[in-house]
Design a protein that fits this description.
Biased composition (Basic and acidic residues): 586-597
GO molecular function, one term: RNA helicase activity
Number of strands: 30
Distance between the termini: 58 Å
GO cellular component, one term: Ski complex
Pfam family, one: Ski2_N
Structural class: alpha/beta
Strand content: 5-15%
Radius of gyration: 44 Å
Protein name: DExH-box ATP-dependent RNA helicase DExH11
Strand order of the largest sheet: 6-14-7-13-12-8-11-9-10
Number of helices: 53
Shape: elongated
């Protein structure tokens, strides 16, 4: 190396030292030596870079280009948890487009007897393989339509788009909705026929305003023949043969799997010997004899011993029963015993021994089956979710974990972040959506399914945590919607607390998705619980090992009685001890009443107190005459007594459940002098709080709630409820999990949303207010909260304590709550407008399919196969024909009138005929209508004699039906003299006048002879006169059907004492003359004038009744001798027809419980323009589909009425807060005139929509509808927040807790995003910019502080 000349004759040389290539400067002598040898360097430097080898080049390429690694600048430790403002999908280097379908080689399944073994070595069967596309294996992962759908843009990959079609839900294979519905004219050829003969062409599609202009079409001469019978017979035959073929294959498959069929001989049957060819199969006459069972056809095809397989095809439903076992549970000890052999290569290893139910679940997950796991809290259900995540990572697919509460989602994100590639999707947070394991709320997953997100293609597992949340009235429907909408290729993992009907619920899921669900779990608690009562400073054990201990309860009861006796005798007045008894249970009720009456006074007192939710002023009254100061003193003493007791017994930490936010705050405030932490724990708490709250700006760090909670935390006391700020709640949760909080006052949300067990759980009371009324805790609620007692691995036993202050519950109530059966899973499915419009967007998906597959319709749909078989049997029954002797049968019409009259008969007879007004008309000579002996006909008659002391019945003469000539003629040779003795029931003919005796002549005048009152004829007395048969008989009041307004003259003496034929002839003739105007009976008495009826409903029925009697009398079946026989036959035919119609109705969509509600909602959507007459979703409906956070109809009408156009962004977002705010009772906000006008306008819109829904018979009250969906309590607060007012100042404007304010503003940001999307659909650019400005105005400071679970502390 040549020397370098430097200034002032300095020389140096530059060299490299070592493999790292560091520069080295070496000074040189200023005088150059002449000896060239001496000019050589003292040593030869090593090369700057190592010699390259194939291995080093390969390593360099792998590290640089092949191995995945994060950008060290973006993902540095200093930037952990940072949220970027730019769009992740636009800046991502890796495109999230779905991969193209791959081809795979799979074995083809063959029938066992067709397996060829001769060509393989050792006689081992080798399956044949074929190459197919992977998309064909997951056929249900395709779109809902028949055409393939191209993948959408990358920005819609996760969330989907309203323009996408949802994927086809699993289990809809047999649904008719998958077939494209065509109009009748297109199906039967009428449109083509009209076109060929020159008729108009169908050129305008449904819902289109205009169509194709095809010009003038001329007629085309053609011959139009339709062979309906031939096609139907052929199709029926083909359908029957295909059905037999499928059943035949299924029979062999089932028999081979279960090893229940033993083949004769060597068990080898060739295909030609066992199965007929296709040509031969067409010769089988299947339709010739439908009564032949299918078993006989199979027996001709197969020469096997059917064994127990007969039950599958004997028509008794055995086959259906076997196929319906969708939920599988039972003894599976062999899985636990052989677990390591069954699952040798686990996707995830655990550092502890798995429980039996965990091994079972993991085994089924490895087999690719869906699982339902039911176990107690802290039993280890999360292990199953972790293994599903591990399988998704192993299979290069995706898994989704859904939770009902955002807190659970954040916690799980923190727990899984170190183990898996995890992303988080909630309403306001989107972290790493490209991850393979996604954690999200159930509402987000529902939106992805409805909007057809392309990420659905990649999902292999969906994990539903806290499935028992399906019982929630408001949000339970979301679980059912998601389960129904999941495509078939997605497997389901359900994690739930112990429920009594887990098999039933799993059966519904399996039947809905058409896949088997494995049910497993355990009722054993990992940490056993003991339940105690705390009364008068002592603990009384009342339950252990799930069994109630009566001795402990009796001891507590005895102590209670002794104390009451001593108080009563020493304190003066026996009633004094009863006064506080209602205070403990009814205090909350009184407090609620006080809240509504105290008004602003309470608000100002609450605000001046400066506590975390500004409640509990010094002048408050709890509703029992005891002020809060006295209540606090008693509370403080009871809590101190309890905590000292627990501390002595080493039972801390403890979670105390109070069912009121105010109660939690007051209880924590009362423990002013309690300090439960050591100096090291205080230091730990202080450091943690400082780090957590350091992300808040100065004014937010000094919020009253933040300062007050820190003071409580330093003493080891915490509070946890919905009124806390989210960051404060997370600080409390994390410190409790670290064990430094000893006493935590919490509402029941802590048991649902936080996985933080304690040593002891205490119930302040066993009563709660559920939003409607005060009631006792349900066993399921008690079990959920009590399950937080006992830390696995730390405690041998968990303690649950029930506080008893002034009274002790009854033994039966305690038993019911503590050891009672958990709450059953019940369907909360209901129709929503957004659900209807999402499904109407896609032709192949119907709302009826969603209704059928809901859990509410599960039992009805489960019985459909049985009803189908019953219907087929009834239709196959031979029909009986009615033979009419008078020509064309009219008995059906007569029977319908008779049935209708029968419905009114009892009411008319009791209310009208037996009334005093009607009885006074039943005098001799009154024309009446009577029942016949068979009661299927009615006869014209006349009252002959009224009841007397000797005879309590009316004596009535009635005209009997005429006999046909074929029956009358043979009697003509009878003895004429016998005709006088009218005891015979046979027919009679008229005696000629020349042969009549003198006494038989017609009498023209009524005899004036006074009778003796003796009845000389034998009743019933029958005879014939004037060519008509008659009968005299005694009747009761109930035998009168109608009283006519006609009256005739009769001769009682000659009729009843002399039995004169002439008198009977004259009476019969008069009766016949009363018929007029073509009617068989005279008009009936007027119900108002004559019978004095005042009930208009009864008068209407009376007119209908008399008209039916007249119509029945005009019918030709009236009086027929075969009437009774034909009526029985008509009744049987009618009953059979009604049963068939009832079965058809039960199997139809009209029988669905919510079908009337659906029809009403469809009419409303048509009325407001969301859909048209053809049920095609319009632009207004598409906008409504975007509204998830508020009531969709009100939000849509607000946009289309341009109610936000004249408002500034701050005013618009303030008005929109009414859509998402949930608290009912708040202080009245002070609004600007512009906001007040906008509020009134929006409220009137809601009232109009409520009235419209009530008009279409939906059970909605307009006022309640408006108040339920629009709550304006935070309009002023949000307006000030959007204008930049500090959070501490806006909290002074209302009595709403800070936590509720933050939750509302966070949800409001999501509403702004929905309105922005709606504005994009509408093409309203001004509204789009306004929503963007409003969203930016509210996203700041403490409201949008990042979650500690997500970013870490």
């Amino acid at each position: 190396m040549d020397p370098i000349e430097a200034a002032k004759e300095l020389s140096f040389r530059v060299g490299f030292s070592g493999h790292s290539g560091h520069l080295r400067l070496e000074p040189l002598c200023t005088v150059e030596r002449s000896d060239p040898v001496k000019s050589l360097p003292d040593f030869v430097l090593p090369p700057a870079f190592a010699r390259e080898t194939p291995e080093s080049i390969k390593e360099y390429i792998e590290e640089t280009y092949l191995l995945p690694r994060l950008d060290s600048d973006v993902f540095s430790p200093e930037k952990v948890g940072r949220q970027w403002d730019f769009d992740w999908f636009d800046k991502a280097n890796v495109h999230l487009e779905p991969s193209l379908p791959r081809s795979v080689v799979i074995p083809t399944w063959e029938l066992p007897f067709r397996c060829q073994k001769s060509g393989s070595e050792g006689g081992i069967w080798e399956p044949k393989s074929v190459q197919v596309d992977e998309i064909e294996l997951t056929v249900e992962a395709q779109e809902s339509g028949s055409l393939p759908r191209m993948a959408g843009p990358a920005k819609d990959f996760v969330r989907g788009s309203i323009s996408n079609r949802p994927f086809r839900p699993g289990g809809l294979d047999d649904s008719q909705s998958l077939e494209r519905s065509l109009p009748a004219g297109a199906s039967n050829g009428e449109w083509v026929h009209q076109l060929l003969i020159g008729g108009p062409a169908q050129s305008v599609p449904p819902s289109f305003k205009q169509g194709l202009d095809l010009g003038y079409l001329q007629a085309y001469p053609c011959l139009w023949n339709v062979y309906k019978d031939h096609s139907s017979v052929k199709s029926a035959s083909d359908e029957k043969l295909s059905e037999l073929s499928v059943q035949f294959d299924d029979l062999f498959k089932k028999a081979w799997e279960e090893d229940v069929v033993e083949f004769e001989g060597d068990g080898q049957l060739s295909g030609s010997e066992s199965v007929k060819s296709e040509d031969e199969a067409t010769v089988v006459d299947v339709t010739s004899n439908p009564c032949v069972p299918e078993l006989s056809v199979l027996d001709e095809i197969l020469s096997v011993e059917a064994g127990d397989s007969k039950s599958r095809f004997d028509g008794t439903g055995g086959e259906q029963h076997l196929k319906e076992a969708w939920a599988i549970s039972g003894s599976t000890e062999w899985i636990s015993e052989n677990f390591h052999d069954l699952v040798p290569n686990k996707a995830l290893d655990f550092p502890f021994e798995l429980d039996t139910f965990q091994k079972e679940a993991i085994y089924y997950l490895e087999k690719g089956e869906s699982v339902f796991v039911a176990a107690h809290t802290s039993a280890g259900k999360t292990v199953v979710a972790e293994y599903a995540f591990a399988l998704a990572s192993k299979h290069c697919t995706r898994a989704v974990y859904t939770a009902p509460i955002k807190t659970i989602s954040n916690q799980k994100y923190r727990d899984f972040c170190g183990k898996f590639d995890v992303g988080l999707l909630t309403g306001d947070v989107s972290l790493r959506p490209e991850a393979s394991c996604l954690i999200m709320t159930t509402e987000i997953l529902r939106s992805m399914l409805y909007r057809g997100a392309d990420i659905i293609r990649d999902i292999e597992w969906v994990i539903f945590d806290e499935v028992h949340y399906v019982n929630d009235v408001e949000r339970g429907v979301v679980w059912e919607e998601v389960i129904i909408m999941l495509p078939r290729h997605i497997n389901i993992v359900l994690l739930s607390a112990t429920v009594p009907n887990k098999v039933e619920f799993a059966d519904w899921i399996g039947r809905t998705k058409q896949k088997q669900i494995r049910v497993t779990g355990t009722t054993k608690r990992p940490v056993p619980l003991e339940h105690c009562l705390f009364y008068s400073g002592e603990l009384y054990k009342i339950c252990e090992s799930e069994s109630f201990i009566p001795q402990g309860f009796k001891a507590a009861k005895d102590t209670f009685k002794k104390k009451n006796i001593s108080v009563a005798t020493g304190g003066g007045g026996g009633g004094g001890s009863r006064a506080p008894a209602s205070a403990s249970h009814d205090g909350a009720r009184g407090q609620k009443r006080e809240t509504s009456h105290s008004g602003k006074q309470k608000q100002s007192a609450a605000q001046s107190s400066g506590n975390l939710s500004r409640t509990g002023g010094a002048n408050q009254n709890n509703g029992n005459g005891v002020n809060n100061w006295g209540l606090r003193r008693s509370d403080a003493s009871s809590w101190l007594l309890l905590i000292n007791k627990l501390s002595k017994k080493s039972l801390l930490p403890v979670v105390i459940f109070c069912f009121s936010k105010n109660r939690c705050d007051r209880s924590a405030d009362s423990m002013t002098r309690t300090d439960l932490t050591s100096s090291s724990e205080k230091s730990q708490i202080r450091v943690f709080c400082d780090k957590a709250f350091s992300r808040l700006k100065g004014s937010d760090r000094n919020l009253p709630q933040v300062v007050r909670v820190q003071n409580l935390l330093h003493r080891g006391i915490g509070v946890h409820h919905a009124g806390l700020l989210p960051i404060v709640k997370e600080v409390v949760e994390m410190l409790f999990c670290r064990g430094v909080i000893k006493v935590l006052f919490s509402t029941e949300t802590f048991a649902m949303g936080v996985n933080a067990p304690a040593r002891t759980v205490v119930f302040d009371t066993l009563r709660k207010f559920d939003g409607k009324e005060f009631r006792q805790l349900l066993p399921g609620e008690y079990t959920q909260m009590a399950g937080r007692a006992g830390r696995r691995g730390l405690d041998k036993i968990g303690t649950v304590i029930v506080m008893c202050r002034d009274e002790i519950l009854e033994e039966k109530d305690l038993k019911h709550v503590i050891v009672g059966s958990a709450t059953r899973l019940e369907s909360q499915f209901r129709l929503t407008y957004i659900m209807i419009m999402h499904l109407l967007r896609v032709e192949e998906l119907k709302v009826e399919d969603m209704l059928k597959r809901s859990f509410a319709e599960f039992h009805a749909q489960k019985k459909l196969p049985e009803k189908q078989q019953l219907l087929m049997r009834k239709l196959a029954q031979p029909t009986k024909s009615i033979e009419c002797i008078k020509g064309e049968p009219a008995i059906e019409e007569y029977y319908d009138m008779y049935s209708e009259a029968k419905e009114h008969e009892m009411e008319i007879l009791e209310a009208v005929m037996q009334s005093s007004a009607a009885q006074q008309f039943l005098t001799p000579g009154r024309v009446v209508v009577m029942k016949s002996q068979s009661a299927k006909d009615h006869l014209l008659g006349v009252v002959v004699k009224s009841p007397s002391s000797s005879n309590k019945q009316h004596i009535v003469l009635v005209l009997k039906p005429e006999l046909p000539a074929t029956i009358q003629t043979p009697l003509a040779s009878g003895n004429l003299q016998d005709s006088k003795n009218t005891d015979s029931s046979q027919g009679f003919y008229m005696v000629p006048k020349s042969k009549r005796a003198l006494e038989e002549e017609y009498c023209t005048s009524v005899s004036s002879r006074k009778g003796s009152g003796v009845i000389n004829i034998k009743l019933p007395h029958q005879g014939a006169a004037a060519g008509v048969r008659y009968e005299v008989r005694g009747v009761d009041n109930t035998d009168f059907l109608c009283i006519c307004n006609s009256k005739i003259k009769i001769d009682q003496v000659r009729l009843l004492e002399d039995s004169s034929s002439a008198a009977y002839s004259r009476t019969v003739q008069q009766l016949l003359n009363t018929k007029s105007d073509g009617n068989n009976f005279p008009p009936a008495l007027d119900p108002v004038k004559d019978l004095k009826l005042k009930d208009m409903h009864l008068v209407e029925k009376y007119y209908k009744w008399t008209n039916l009697l007249q119509k029945m009398a005009k019918n030709k079946c009236h009086g027929c001798i075969k009437l009774e026989e034909n009526m029985d036959l008509a009744r049987e035919i009618k009953r059979h027809s009604e049963e068939v119609n009832a079965l058809r109705f039960q199997m139809s969509d009209e029988a669905l419980k919510q079908m009337p509600d659906f029809q009403g909602r469809i009419d409303i959507l048509k009325e407001i323009g969301c859909i048209d007459a053809d049920l095609v979703v319009q632009i207004k409906g598409r906008v409504a589909c975007e509204m998830n956070s508020g009531e969709e109809l009100i939000c849509t009408e607000c946009l289309f009425e341009n109610q936000l156009d004249d408002l500034e962004p701050e005013e618009a977002v303030a008005l929109m807060s009414s859509f998402v705010f949930q608290q009912k009772n708040t202080s009245e906000p002070s609004l600007t005139p512009k906001l007040s006008m906008a509020k009134e306008r929006l409220y009137n819109t809601a009232i109009k929509l409520g009235e419209l829904q009530a008009y279409f018979n939906l059970p909605i009250n307009p006022e309640e509808y408006a108040k339920e969906n629009l709550k304006f309590g935070l309009v002023e607060v949000v307006y000030e927040w959007a204008k930049g007012t500090p959070f501490a100042d806006i909290c002074e404007l209302t009595d709403v807790p800070e936590g509720m304010i933050v939750r509302t503003i966070v949800r409001l940001d999501e509403t702004c995003r929905e309105f922005k999307n709606a504005a994009s659909i509408m093409g309203n650019s001004a509204l789009y910019k306004k929503m963007e400005t409003a969203s930016n105005a509210i996203k700041r400071d403490i409201v949008f502080a990042a979650s500690l679970y997500v970013t870490g502390v």
